[in-house]
Amino acid sequence: MTRVASAMLLAATVSLTACLDEPNPVAPETVATTTPELAVRSSGTPFEMDPVVQADIEARLTDLAHQKSATLAAMRADAGVALPEGVSVAPLGFSWIGALDGEIVGNDVFFLDRGNKQLVVQWVPEDPRRNGRTDIGYAVDELFGFGVYDAPGVTAAQSLGAIDRAMATWDGQTCSGGLTIPKGDFIDWLFFDSDVFHEGFFPLPPGVLGATFPFIFVSGGVPTDIDGDGAFDYAFAIIDYSSNFVWGIDTNVFPFIDVETVALHEMGHGLAQAHFGTAFETLSNGKIHFGPRSVMNAGYSGLQQSLKGTDRGGHCSMYGSWPNN
Predict the structure, then answer these.
(1) Cβ distance 143 to 9 under 8 Å?
(2) What is the pLDDT of residues 114-128, one digit of tens each?
(3) pTM score, two decimals?
(4) What CATH number does domain 3-319 carry, 3.10.50.40, 3.90.1640.10, 3.40.390.10, 1.10.760.10?
């Protein structure tokens, strides 16, 4: 099917998560988890999120990752999207940001784990499976996920503007002058001409503000590393925002969650950054905070619409010489 013909498919297609009420597929028997930041109490006593709560959140997100994979595979097959012989894509896992309320702290979870504390996936410049591009583009579901449904507190137009501003912040980093982050559309993304897809507001597990689902290329069932950098090759990413919260624009007032702040964080994962910073709890009031505070902390700590030094450092280390990595 051509790209023009596939536009007809799009008009008749529901959002990837419209099928989330279908019976859940069987999750893998084992899921490897890495925790880049250890949550500790300010007294130095190790602190961990309630394991029952964490297990429930991560089981639900695991189901979502596999549902998205199955739905998207069917859509690309219907659209005639072809990869090289023997090459396919598979969900790698997810990274999610916690609301901190009720001691909910986010995590990076991978179905395949190389045992380090970094995201185990990286983009490959000029990857032929991504049509040889050196950009890392983004697209937004303006037809369904944002185009039809308003989130509590914000309109679709406000959300779209906030996401575009967050993408412009990453795109404007001067250390990565060889990298561009252009905006495409759903068809671009479907045909591997765009990379990170902001899907919309959907019910996510309690306490989860947003989640990024990275997908990798596999060949013969084995993850690929065609550039030999020791990381799995990024194929694309899907970002979801939770409809369980009240959202706002340029706000630092409880209970509103700033759309741009969360979009900035999630696109960091889309660009292969892991969570950063150590979580502490102030024993006198039970509040969780991070040191150092950064966009890529695993929990939401208020308005952050510009990158901190640690965020820029991570980005520059990966893209400072892009695409001549």
Answers:
(1) no
(2) 434 346 899 999 999
(3) 0.86
(4) 3.40.390.10
Residue 222 bridge partners (DSSP)? 219
Nearest-angstrom CA–CA distance, 140 and 310: 27
pLDDT (tens digit per residue) in 35-73: 333 233 333 333 467 788 888 999 999 999 999 999 999
What residue segments make up the domains of the chain, in order of their start?
3-319
- Which of 231, 232, 234, 239 has its CA nearest to residue 61? 239
Which amino acid is located at 289 in the chain?
A: H
Count of residues making up the chain: 325
| CB atoms near residue 5 (< 10 Å) | 10
- Tell me the Ramachandran region of residue 252: left when phi exceeds 0, alpha when psi lies from -120 to 50, beta otherwise: alpha
| Both structure tokens of 147 | 């185009």
Distances (CA, A) of 21 to 14, 16, 64, 133, 199: 13, 12, 10, 36, 17
- Contact of 167 with 123, CB cutoff 8 Å: no
CB 37 within 8 A of CB 279: yes
27 token code pair: 């999750």
